[in-house]
């Protein structure tokens, strides 16, 4: 109850309040604010304490908890069995608590999760790639996490939902709000087929700073972050930077070099801040269990001549590409093999359709 009240007193990531909570506990903090008793906290100046106290007067945590409960949600705090312990890596900026809607266990779902983020005003290429990644990751048993915003976020969520996968939307507003309004149906589907969560209490609206602060939760919650498209100044890059600071895997998808929306991702990869990935298999290999989530080996098509024994291949390489070809002696000289062996190999190559005899000369078969 005390933490539900405190979630209305400050913005997410309030390090001063976080240090106070770590030292005194939520109940004692609420009592100090209510009684206007300044604790021994150097950065907690009278002005900040007065601001907390003014907000506390209008807070009704019971009403907030009931409002979310009627939507099928709950409020979880550090120490609960459902609390994802990886959020503790945020230190004093750790969420006071999380308002959650959905039936799955956040702690369990987050154990095998990956965030897919990027530009809101994405290109058709970016939307296609994000959707494919979302679907592929879900099919490989990964939970796709994003911010439910326009562009890359929405494409990643929809990709996971399309294949019956689980996805988590981390909101910059209350979990009972639909923002953006155009995503009302998408947010409803995420709540039904996955989880919605937010640090902000019900009824709270987003602002520019809350989007940035929300990104640190996305970065900390997941095993790794994939940036699909991002300009040089992009909120998605802040998620990637936080992920890297938290020792999470940071990955990027390359795009056209002529696209400004890929410039930020390219700079991230070039600086060593992210690993280049092209599909879910490569993502899984980086963030999955050692030896269990290996990506398939990449190789070009196997050509018939790739299957030739070394000696036979040497003879084939020695046959000139000219129409007149060459006699056995010349082929032997070029290949460095004895003439008798070269003659034998030429007949083998003839049987395989690589060369043909024309009088005393051998030449390559012209394929049409």
From TrEMBL:
Please provide the Gene Ontology terms (biological process) for this protein: DNA-mediated transformation
For this protein, the record's SUPFAM superfamilies field holds: MCP/YpsA-like
Pfam families, alphabetized? DNA_processg_A
**Gene3D superfamilies for this protein:** 3.40.50.450
Domain Smf/DprA SLOG intervals: 75-285
Source superkingdom: Bacteria
| InterPro entries attached to this UniProt entry | DprA, DrpA_SLOG
Q: Where is the signal peptide?
A: none
Family membership noted in the UniProt record = Belongs to the DprA/Smf family.
In Swiss-Prot or TrEMBL terms, this protein is called: Smf/DprA SLOG domain-containing protein
Organism for this UniProt entry:
Kitasatospora indigofera
């Amino acid at each position: 109850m005390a933490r539900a009240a405190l979630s209305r007193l400050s913005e997410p990531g309030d390090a001063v309040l976080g240090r106070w909570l770590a030292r005194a506990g939520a109940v004692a903090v609420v009592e100090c604010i209510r009684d206007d008793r300044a604790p021994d906290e150097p950065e907690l100046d009278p002005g900040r304490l007065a601001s907390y106290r003014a907000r506390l007067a209008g807070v009704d945590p019971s009403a907030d908890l009931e409002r979310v409960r009627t939507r099928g949600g709950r409020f979880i705090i550090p120490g609960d069995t459902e609390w994802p312990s990886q959020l503790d890596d945020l230190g004093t900026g750790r969420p006071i608590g999380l308002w959650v809607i959905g039936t799955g266990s956040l702690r369990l779902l987050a154990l095998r999760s990956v965030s897919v983020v990027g530009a809101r005003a994405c290109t058709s290429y970016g939307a296609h790639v994000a959707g494919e990644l979302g679907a592929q990751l879900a099919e490989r048993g990964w939970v796709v996490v994003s911010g439910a915003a326009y562009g890359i976020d929405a494409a990643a969520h929809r990709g996971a939902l399309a294949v019956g996968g689980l996805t988590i939307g981390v909101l910059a507003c209350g979990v009972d709000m639909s923002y953006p309004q155009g995503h009302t149906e998408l947010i409803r589907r995420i709540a039904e087929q996955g989880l919605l969560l937010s640090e902000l209490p019900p009824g709270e609206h987003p602002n520019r700073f809350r989007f940035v602060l929300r990104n640190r939760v996305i970065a900390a919650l997941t095993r790794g972050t994939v940036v699909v498209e991002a300009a040089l100044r992009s909120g998605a890059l802040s998620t990637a930077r936080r992920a890297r600071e938290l020792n999470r895997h940071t990955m990027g998808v390359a795009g056209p070099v002529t696209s400004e929306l890929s410039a930020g991702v390219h700079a991230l990869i070039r600086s060593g801040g992210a690993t280049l990935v092209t599909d879910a298999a490569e993502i899984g290999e980086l963030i999955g269990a050692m030896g269990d989530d290996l990506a398939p080996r990449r190789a070009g098509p196997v050509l018939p001549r790739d299957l030739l024994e070394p000696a036979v291949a040497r003879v084939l390489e020695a046959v000139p590409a000219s129409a007149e070809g060459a006699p056995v002696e010349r082929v032997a000289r070029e290949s460095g093999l004895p003439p008798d062996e070269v003659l034998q190999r030429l007949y083998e190559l003839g049987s395989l359709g690589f060369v043909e005899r024309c009088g005393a000369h051998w030449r390559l078969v012209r394929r049409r």
